[in-house]
Specification:
By secondary structure, this protein is of the alpha/beta class. It has a single domain, classed as P-loop containing nucleotide triphosphate hydrolases (Rossmann fold, 3-Layer(aba) Sandwich), CATH 3.40.50.300. 33% of the residues lie in helices and 7% in strands. It contains twelve helices and five strands. α2 links the parallel β2 and β3. It is globular and about 45 Å long.
């Protein structure tokens, strides 16, 4: 098959990690791997791993970050005729205490359609150290996969993360109290993007990893998606009118609600609370106001995240000027 034509207009700030510190896109790309498992001798997910398991294995994984547009990107990629994304988002297969024990057969069964690119998206894959060992498990099963890491302004991501947790009833503290937690702050750790990427670099070549900036995806969806399509090896000229629409699969931050009913549904793993929030929002009460950060808290967070953002800029060659610090 002929290699896809490179986009006519190269990005001024390419988001490939090729060469770690290089800002040049590779002139030649290695084709995506065949959809067969590669597991090191003596290692396997569980005793349930079987060579007769039905289904493909992904050669594309969106590894995060949480609240950085992974749901939208999962949806957009699935519209491309050469890409098949898992029907179920957030497989969490490589998270040890979630679905790893279900075995490779369970995982492969979620990819029945073996198109040129088969992918999944699980933001929990970049929540180290809350979920550790993910890159190593992933490399055991899909060592040649291309990885996409979505990022956004780190502090804005923290606010969205907090609002998500608060609306689900998993967070009861005020935003200020939650963000001022000093040790193992989950909101802060998820926004340390370079720290999360560093967990993957011992296992995946930087050329296999692409950064996607949420602000760019929303501002220039067609250009950003062309760049992604080229990276994964499919026709970058494909366009779809749905690329310019916001995903309707999850409610926007401004419409998130919190109620005892919603918390009960989440706690008991009752499906459909997102659908209810979109279509029957009155059942969950009034929208939760988006909290505002005080200037001193913003400055404190910027100071704590500054070194990580600087490292990400050096590694990717991006200036990230749309971010707040």
């Amino acid at each position: 098959m002929a290699e896809p034509k490179r986009p006519d207009t190269p990005r001024s700030a390419p988001t490939s990690l090729q060469g770690r510190l290089s800002t040049q896109l590779p002139t030649h790309r290695t084709p995506l791997p065949p959809l067969t498992p590669t597991v090191r001798p003596g290692t396997r997910p569980t005793e349930a791993v079987s060579a007769q398991a039905v289904g493909a294995l992904p050669n594309l994984v969106i590894i995060g970050a949480m609240k950085c547009g992974t749901t939208s990107l999962h949806e957009y990629l699935g519209y491309h005729p050469s890409i098949s994304m898992s029907r179920r988002k957030e497989m969490n297969f490589f998270v040890h205490h979630q679905n790893w024990s279900k075995g490779l057969g369970w995982y492969r069964a979620h990819f029945p359609e073996a198109k040129q690119v088969v992918g999944e998206a699980s933001p929990n894959y970049t929540r180290y150290p809350v979920f550790s060992g993910v890159p190593e498990r992933m490399h055991m099963v899909v060592p040649n996969a291309k990885l996409i890491f979505c990022v956004r302004d780190p502090i804005e991501r923290m606010v969205s993360h907090y609002l998500h947790a608060y609306s689900l009833g998993r967070e009861n503290r005020t935003l200020e109290a939650a963000f001022r937690q000093r040790d193992n702050n989950p909101y802060l750790l998820c926004s340390r993007y370079m720290y999360q990427l560093e967990q993957y670099l011992p296992f995946y070549d930087p050329a296999q990893i692409k950064l996607v900036i949420l602000e760019e995806l929303y501002k220039n969806p067609l250009e950003t998606l062309r760049d992604i399509f080229y990276f994964v090896g499919v026709d970058p000229s494909y366009e779809d009118s749905r690329f310019e629409r916001a995903s309707a699969k999850t409610p926007s931050a401004s419409t998130r609600r919190r109620s005892p009913l919603k918390s009960w549904m989440v706690k008991n793993n009752v499906q459909g609370f997102y659908w209810t929030e979109r279509h029957l929002p009155w059942l969950f009460g009034k929208p939760v106001p988006i909290p505002k950060l005080s200037s001193d808290l913003h400055e404190g967070l910027a100071e704590q995240l500054g070194a990580d953002v600087a490292a990400l800029r050096r590694c990717s060659g991006l200036d990230l000027t749309t971010w707040s610090f």
